[in-house]
Structures are given as structure tokens and as C-alpha cells.
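Model it.
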Amino acid sequence: METPLVICPKCEASHTIEDVLTAQSNQNVIFTCPNCHFSKKNIETSKG
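Modeled.
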């Protein structure tokens, strides 16, 4: 199975989901682009 790609909303670079998303203990997720270093915190998931 292929690993999903995530596209950065700022620079539009695509990276694998493991490279850009970090799960937090409170069920939220942090997105960080390795290309332009754009970061979005506290992204709610369906469980959070």
C-alpha cells in the first residue's frame, strides 16, 4: 500500500504523511512542512 502524500498549503510541496504530521497525546495533530517550515498546530482529528 502506498503512503499518502500531504501537500503544504503555503509552498505546495508534497511530502509523505510521516514526514509532516506529528500526533499529540491530546488527539490533536501538528503539521510541519520540511520544505518551507510552515507549521499548523492543534489540528483536530475525528477522535479529538
